[in-house]
Amino acid sequence: MPDFQIKQKEQVKTCVIFPNLSTSAVRLSPQARLEEACGLATAIDLNVVYGEIINLKEIKPASYLGGGVIDRLKSVIRQQDIELLIIDGTLTPIQQRNLEKKLETKVIDRTALILEIFGERAHTREGTLQVELAHLSYQRSRLVRSWTHLERQRGGAGFLGGPGETQIELDRRLIDDKIVKIKKELEKVKKTRALQRNSRKKIPYPVVALVGYTNAGKSSLFNMLTNANVFAQNLLFATLDPTMRRIKLPSGREVILSDTVGFISDLPHELIMAFRATLEEVLEADIIVHVRDIANADSQAQKKDVLDVLENLGLKNIKEQENYIELLNKSDLLDNETKQRIQNHIKQRNNKILTSAVTGEGREHFLAMIDEKLAAGTLQKNLTISAAQGDILAWLHGNARILTKTPHNDKIKLCVQISESKWQQLENRLK
After folding, report:
1. Domain that holds residue 143
2. pTM of the full predicted structure?
3. pLDDT tens-digit profile of 302-346?
4. pLDDT score at 152
5. Are residues 226 and 359 in the same domain?
6. Distance between CA 307 and CA 303 in Å, rounded?
7. Cα(147)–Cα(93) distance, rounded to whole angstroms?
8. Per the structure, how many domains does the chain have?
């Protein structure tokens, strides 16, 4: 019997196994990791009919799994007409090929599964290019699977001839050429994004970036706060391409809210590199909001995975920073006792809020906290400008918080809240 069952769908019959290696440093519990892998498969409409945690002392170099496990899986595959086996780990090309031969079915690993999901979810030009780059990097290392049956071909003629390229070498060169081309296109996209960020800085609106483990509810929160209609479902990696909307805070200040791709444990190296440009929005953000699924039993382990990724991006000790907010989402799924315990715990914290994207709980508190953090370190200044200085007034609306505005003859008296750097910029403008 499988350890885990989910609602069946009318698609490819799939078996998912999580190899629980005794020496592994995986943070999530084996059961949570199996459920996550099944969720990843469901995200691309695979019909998971069997799932199992397999305890391993060691990985076999040739076939990953031992002979006894392979024989048992072969029996399950035949009995249930399984067409695809997903191993929630990393397979070498040789291990993948040998497993397919012995089990007589298609076999993929965690990296291939996540790449498949990303391929379906990416819609923007940048997202599509990034996924294609990750796919090519992954395929390049696995060409041996496709071309081992081909012999070396000869090229050229006469004494100028010699050993030609094997098919695998030819394909590797074609992939390398494609990779170079995509990287050049991505550089263009990256420059465009940099120009867009610079344009926002000139307006500017502070950027508030939502980050978090996949399926923590970022897109649902984004929709609640912005009245947008971003795709948000109970699926892993429902959002891949960053989405931005402008929202107004209680003070009247406007900010840009950015919804980013969800993180996951053991994110394939190819995707960390390929999606670095997408996550640059987080590096540029004025406020970073870490959305957590507080109702998930593995919420703490998921938090550590997210913080690890942020640290790899260059954001050291982010949870200690003033611009970091932790949103404990899905409070509607907690029982009263657990909810009260969490509320008592966060009362002493100035950067944690209990929220629900479903009920709207914590919404106003969250917006007020963004206001408060953006206002920290600002100056309160009084100034008088000419009524004809519309450009200065427009600049103040974009760069400061206007507390009072009093017309007096042909002058306007203002009391503003402004950062020290912006005040220096204003003084230079008024000279």
Report:
1. 122-152+163-202
2. 0.71
3. 999 889 888 877 788 887 788 899 999 999 999 999 999 999 888
4. 38
5. yes
6. 6
7. 12
8. 4
